[in-house]
Design brief:
single chain; alpha+beta; four-stranded mixed β-sheet; 6 strands
Length: about 240
């Protein structure tokens, strides 16, 4: 288990991911896997966000959790590491950012591990299935919300991370390798017939897409009190 460097911890913190114990944890990712908990979870998100609709509250959660998902791919490309712990150790607690109450993600630092080259594709496929698809399926049980909205909430952060990685000459090659894996239909075959990520990007270079409205669905950020519409809302 590699020890996280100061720069790694700082990078995680910048995306509201923390490695210390939360003072008052509310729930874990493992809770969301249990159907009986989903009503309580939905009501909790409605209370935290003051959202006018359930869809907006659940979308907001997926955006917050999406920062963790995206950081998995950043850490993989930048350091050949991923967080590989139990889902009960992904905890969520209320934090305040810019005067707004929202969710922070708390993980155990010693659950990061190195990824060998020969298992890279399998690790990415596992993240997409266990940490993305299965969670999206559960979130969709809480309210009427498009799976595309939830996937795009993850992909938006991923697109930015790959842009920054490709701008770094020492990391660009590894980032390109991971992008090729993400665009490969076979990596998604457990639950999709083609790469959902490639459908989102159109196979374009992330650095050419960061200022382009690639979203096809609204994330409902505009409906959360204190927040604004995202800059790439397709229904402006």
């Amino acid at each position: 288990m590699p020890a996280l460097s100061y720069d790694q911890v700082r990078q995680l913190n910048s995306y509201s991911i923390y490695t210390e114990e939360p003072t008052r944890p509310l729930f874990t990712l493992a809770n969301i896997q249990k159907d009986f908990y989903l009503t309580d979870f939905r009501n909790l998100m409605m209370g935290i966000t003051n959202a006018p609709t359930e869809a907006a509250a659940i979308s907001h959660f997926s955006r917050r959790y999406g920062m963790f998902v995206a950081m998995q791919f950043y850490m993989l490309a930048a350091y050949d590491e991923v967080w590989d712990g139990n889902l009960k150790d992904i905890r969520f607690a209320v934090v305040e950012e810019y005067g707004i109450r929202t969710l922070g993600t708390f993980i155990t630092a010693n659950d990061f591990r190195y990824v060998d080259d020969d298992e890279r594709e399998r690790v990415i496929a596992n993240i997409l299935y266990k940490q993305c698809f299965e969670i999206i399926q559960q979130l969709r049980k809480t309210t009427t919300i498009s799976p595309l909205t939830l996937w795009e909430n993850f992909f938006g952060y991923m697109l930015w991370h790959y842009h920054t990685l490709l701008e770094n000459p020492t990391l660009a090659e590894r980032a390109l390798e991971d992008l090729e894996i993400l665009e490969d239909d076979q990596v998604w075959r457990t639950f999709a017939t083609k790469s959902i990520f490639k459908e989102y990007t159109g196979g374009g270079n992330p650095s050419q897409l960061i200022n382009v409205p690639v979203r096809k669905s609204c994330c409902f950020s505009k409906d959360i009190p204190g927040l604004m519409a995202c800059g790439f809302c397709p229904i402006k």
